């Protein structure tokens, strides 16, 4: 060891005392990130040998520990003495003991008894063996210092140390946290786990509560199994400790000040959770099993339904909500986060203490579904953070029929994905409900302390098959042979409580009888349920209910307010240096606000947001490039060229204005769109927008579109005013950046579920966006937004168009053609209008009228019929689209157009013009693109 390290340690001798952990923490930080320690420590640590013959490469702290131990024993010396190694055998063994302690912290979970079935095959962990650390049973009676262990004493015999380490890290709790970089977090976790050896004493009353909750969990499954034999219920049998965990979580979070808890989970155990935690009346559940219709909508199966209620905790009343969820596993996770963020925003809670998100996962889905990783990556970002999520994995150790680890995943644990955000993970044996209760308490406290995600891996089993109609032994014979012999967690715990004298056998039976009687009586069986909840905790949806579809909406704004806001969104702080091209955009916008220049798309869109904010509506806009806009049209976020500081004019319109949330998102579509859906379903008075970088990027979020956005209202009665801006247009950019797949949205359009629009002018997007928030109707809005039209010289509007106009579902012919001369009408939507308009002008044809259909669903049949009624000599009508004929609007919309024509002239036939049917959305060769575009435009105009 070099003398420099000794001198450095000596200079910091005041830090030692009894704190043997300081230097090893410093060295551990250095190993993770050398730049995280001071230069003088870094220089000296660089000189240390990295490994030795008897030193594990996994735990390279020993060089600094040996010399720290030596120095701590020689603090009284007047000057450091140079030594080559620790001088005595005892001191050498002391170093090895400290190394062993660290090994248990790092790898103890790999030997933990977390599998109730005892079938989990664990590889040997040599680091935990005494011999690995050159220790033996002959050292058991020797006393060693404990270093940084929180065992309540500074030294203990080796035998006691090993026993306590095994109980703490290798029993029914396997704590996995040493992957966390932050030393403070690790020390906090150690201070919670180690003093109680991961198994604190539990009061008698709490033991009785645990038994009661297990009785409820098992009792519901048995009752449903006997009353509705063979019916799918995706029961919780084998994982009943989940109810103990949730009950603990809610009470603990409420005690710490939470006012709302939002839970998302798939179908396994959902019915049990709804009845035993949320207080859903069992009689309602029984009606659902019997298939009774209660609503005039499609509805959904009982194990997808959401619910909400209020429960009482020591900290007061807490509102708990269960998110509605489809069968697509894990997709509800980002939806929950969005709902939680909306609730936090409503409470002006920027930390996340008032509303807690809880995600309950299955083991196979947690490991296999990419949206899990996306949701973790969102967790600490500005746009999507919620103060940490508590994740509970109901680990059945089997997917549908896949159980072998080498088939189910490539990682040791199903929870390893959580390590990407350094979340602590508590693997816990589901047959030890007291341990489940303990790790839940620690998880809630960790989330409250550090505002980060935390994971509980509840290792249990699935007593039935994937559903109650499956026979699981066909694919898992050994597992289910063991399960058949295995007592339920309730039986095991009841036996233990009887043995401890906490309850008698008769009292245990009485709990079962009382619960079953409550079910038969149709009584609520959740603990602490508030029968008359405080409605102030609810979102008031009354203003948005009961509105039928209408095209009418007053979106006008006083022109003076428009000009005032137009000037404000062009203001920057003094000394703020804007990039040259951006300054040109701002200068042009000032001219537009003054009426000296017609408005382009970016200005009209910005004014739409400004007027919403001015009229009291919060605005939330996210996407991968929304600050600037993918096509550089928005520039809502300005960047100082000298300091890199940002400024958002829309956020600085006036003091006390509503919240503006405008962030570039992470490179995710599925999780981000799920988040925004959850936000929009919880914040009805807010304008919530997700913009795709290109429209086809929505493909990555198709699950959210299918399962939530287009069908959520009719499955679950969930209103949603989310707006999706999807850049769409055929401009020779190839098959990946041309089409937002308009046809998919139109195919899913029915029962007035969504709105699909193709605006072509700045005034149209202005009024369309304002209509979405001003009228009380809440329906998702899908906008095929433009790319080239953002700067098209003809795609402009006036201030008067914005101030006085409204959104036009159909824009009639604008060239004042003589209606009697018109023999042909071309119907179209989107960018192709300008190509058609200019080609007609080139050909000087005055017998062709071009009508734009700006809203494709709900289709404006009456308005279209009224638009063409004056063309009394009409001979032909054609629909023109840029998309291939098997895509775009043609197949899903032609019947609406024909209905409009029938009102005008039953003899008229409708033709379709577009690109040839194709497998890909567009061609990749610009020459072919131009040739196709020329042909479809000419065919439409000339017939």
UniProtKB/TrEMBL annotation:
Any signal peptide, and if so, which residues? none
InterPro entries with a match to the protein in the record: 2-oxogl_dehyd_N, 2oxoglutarate_DH_E1, DH_E1, KGD_C_sf, ODO-1/KGD_C, THDP-binding, Transketolase-like_Pyr-bd
Q: Could you list this entry's UniProt keywords, alphabetically sorted.
A: Glycolysis, Oxidoreductase, Thiamine pyrophosphate
Show the CDD domains listed in the entry: TPP_E1_OGDC_like (cd02016)
Q: According to the UniProt entry, what is the EC number of this protein?
A: 1.2.4.2
Q: Which reaction does it catalyse?
A: N(6)-[(R)-lipoyl]-L-lysyl-[protein] + 2-oxoglutarate + H(+) = N(6)-[(R)-S(8)-succinyldihydrolipoyl]-L-lysyl-[protein] + CO2
- A Gene Ontology term for the protein's cellular component: oxoglutarate dehydrogenase complex
Keyword ATP-binding annotated: no
Is Ligase a UniProt keyword of this protein? no
Instruction: Report the SMART domains cross-referenced here.
Output: Transket_pyr
Residues in domain Transketolase-like pyrimidine-binding?
599-792
What does it do? E1 component of the 2-oxoglutarate dehydrogenase (OGDH) complex which catalyzes the decarboxylation of 2-oxoglutarate, the first step in the conversion of 2-oxoglutarate to succinyl-CoA and CO(2).
Family listed: Belongs to the alpha-ketoglutarate dehydrogenase family.
Q: How does it assemble?
A: Homodimer. Part of the 2-oxoglutarate dehydrogenase (OGDH) complex composed of E1 (2-oxoglutarate dehydrogenase), E2 (dihydrolipoamide succinyltransferase) and E3 (dihydrolipoamide dehydrogenase); the complex contains multiple copies of the three enzymatic components (E1, E2 and E3).
Q: Tell me what this protein is called.
A: 2-oxoglutarate dehydrogenase E1 component
Q: Name its species.
A: Neptunomonas phycophila
């Amino acid at each position: 060891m070099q003398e420099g390290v000794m001198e450095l340690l000596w200079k910091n001798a005041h830090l030692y005392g009894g704190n043997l952990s300081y230097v090893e923490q410093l060295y551990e930080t250095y190993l993770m990130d050398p730049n995280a320690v001071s230069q003088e420590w870094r220089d000296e640590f660089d000189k240390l040998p990295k490994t030795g013959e008897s030193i594990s490469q996994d735990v390279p702290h020993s060089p600094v520990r040996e010399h720290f131990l030596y120095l701590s024993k020689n603090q009284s010396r007047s000057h450091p003495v140079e030594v080559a190694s620790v001088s005595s055998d005892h001191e050498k063994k002391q170093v090895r003991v400290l190394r062993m302690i660290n090994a248990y912290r790092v790898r103890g979970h790999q030997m933990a008894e977390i599998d109730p079935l005892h079938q989990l095959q664990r590889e040997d962990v040599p680091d935990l063996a005494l011999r690995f650390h050159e220790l033996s049973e002959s050292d058991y009676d020797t006393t060693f210092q404990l270093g940084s262990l929180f065992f309540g004493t500074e030294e203990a015999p080796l035998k006691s140390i090993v026993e306590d380490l095994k109980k703490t890290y290798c029993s029914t709790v396997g704590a996995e946290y040493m992957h966390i970089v932050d030393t403070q977090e690790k020390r906090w976790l150690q201070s919670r786990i180690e003093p109680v050896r991961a198994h604190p004493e539990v009061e008698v009353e709490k033991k009785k509560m645990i038994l009661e909750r297990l009785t409820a969990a098992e009792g519901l499954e048995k009752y449903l199994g006997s009353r509705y034999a063979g019916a799918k219920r995706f029961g919780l049998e084998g994982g009943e400790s989940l109810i103990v965990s949730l009950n603990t979580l809610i009470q603990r979070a409420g005690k710490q000040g939470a006012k709302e808890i939002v839970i998302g989970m798939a179908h396994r155990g959902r019915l049990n959770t709804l009845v035993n935690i949320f207080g859903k009346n069992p009689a309602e559940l029984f009606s659902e099993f019997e298939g009774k219709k209660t609503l005039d909508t499609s509805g959904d199966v009982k194990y997808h339904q959401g619910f909400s209620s209020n429960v009482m905790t020591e900290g007061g009343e807490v509102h708990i909500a269960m998110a509605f969820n489809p069968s697509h596993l894990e997709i509800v996770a980002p939806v929950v986060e969005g709902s939680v963020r909306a609730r936090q925003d409503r409470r002006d809670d920027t930390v996340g203490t008032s509303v807690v998100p809880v995600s309950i996962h299955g083991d196979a889905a947690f490991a296999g579904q990419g949206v899990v990783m996306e949701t973790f990556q969102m967790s600490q970002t500005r746009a999507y953070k919620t103060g940490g999520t508590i994740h509970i994995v109901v680990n059945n150790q089997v997917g549908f029929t896949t159980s072998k680890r080498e088939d189910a995943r490539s990682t040791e644990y199903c929870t390893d994905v959580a390590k990407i955000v350094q979340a602590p993970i508590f693997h816990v044996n589901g047959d030890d409900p007291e341990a489940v209760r303990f790790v839940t308490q620690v998880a809630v406290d960790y989330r409250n302390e550090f505002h980060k995600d935390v994971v509980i891996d509840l290792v249990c089993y699935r007593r039935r098959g994937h559903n109650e109609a499956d026979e699981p032994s066909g694919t898992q014979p050994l597992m289910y042979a063991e399960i058949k012999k295995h007592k339920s967690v309730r039986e095991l715990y009841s036996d233990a409580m009887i043995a401890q004298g906490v309850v008698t056998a008769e009292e245990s039976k009485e709990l079962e009888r009382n619960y079953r009687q409550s079910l038969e009586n149709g009584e609520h069986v959740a603990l602490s349920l508030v029968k008359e909840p405080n409605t102030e905790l609810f979102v008031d949806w009354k203003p948005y209910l009961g509105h039928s579809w209408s095209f009418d909406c007053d979106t006008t704004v006083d022109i003076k307010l428009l000009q005032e806001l137009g000037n404000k969104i062009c203001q920057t702080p003094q000394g703020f240096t804007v990039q040259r091209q951006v300054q040109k955009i701002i200068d042009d916008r000032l001219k537009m606000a003054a009426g000296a220049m017609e408005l382009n798309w970016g200005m009209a869109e910005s004014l739409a947001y400004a007027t919403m904010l001015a009229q009291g509506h919060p605005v939330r806009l996210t996407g991968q490039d929304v600050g600037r806009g993918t096509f550089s049209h928005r520039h809502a976020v300005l960047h100082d060229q000298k300091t890199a500081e940002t400024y958002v004019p829309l956020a600085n319109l006036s003091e006390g204005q509503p919240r503006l949330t405008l962030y570039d998102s992470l490179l995710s579509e599925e999780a981000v769109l799920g988040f925004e859906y959850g936000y929009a379903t919880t914040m009805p008075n807010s304008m919530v927008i997700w913009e795709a970088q290109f429209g086809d990027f929505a493909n990555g979020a198709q699950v959210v579109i299918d399962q939530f956005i287009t069908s959520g209202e009719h499955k679950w009665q969930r209103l949603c005013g989310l707006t999706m801006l999807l850049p769409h247009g055929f401009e020779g950019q190839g098959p990946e950046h041309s089409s937002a797949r308009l046809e998919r949205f139109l195919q899913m359009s029915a029962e007035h579920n969504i709105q699909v629009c193709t605006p072509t002018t700045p005034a149209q997007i202005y009024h369309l966006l304002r209509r979405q928030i001003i009228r009380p109707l809440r329906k998702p809005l899908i906008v095929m937004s433009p790319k080239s039209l953002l700067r098209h010289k003809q795609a402009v509007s006036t201030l008067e168009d914005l101030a006085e106009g409204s959104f036009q579902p159909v824009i009639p012919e604008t060239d004042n053609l003589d209606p009697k001369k018109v023999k042909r009408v071309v119907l179209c939507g989107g960018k192709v209008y300008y190509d058609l308009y200019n080609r007609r002008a080139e050909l000087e044809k005055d017998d062709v009228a071009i009508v734009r259909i700006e809203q494709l669903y709900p289709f404006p049949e009456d308005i279209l019929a009224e638009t063409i009624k004056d063309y009394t000599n009409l001979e032909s009508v054609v629909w023109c689209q840029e998309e291939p004929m098997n895509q775009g609007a043609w197949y899903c919309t032609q019947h609406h157009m024909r209905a409009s024509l029938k009102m005008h002239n039953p003899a008229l036939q409708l033709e379709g013009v577009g690109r040839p049917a194709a497998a890909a959305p567009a061609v990749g060769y610009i020459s072919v693109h131009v040739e196709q575009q020329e042909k479809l435009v000419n065919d439409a105009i000339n017939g």
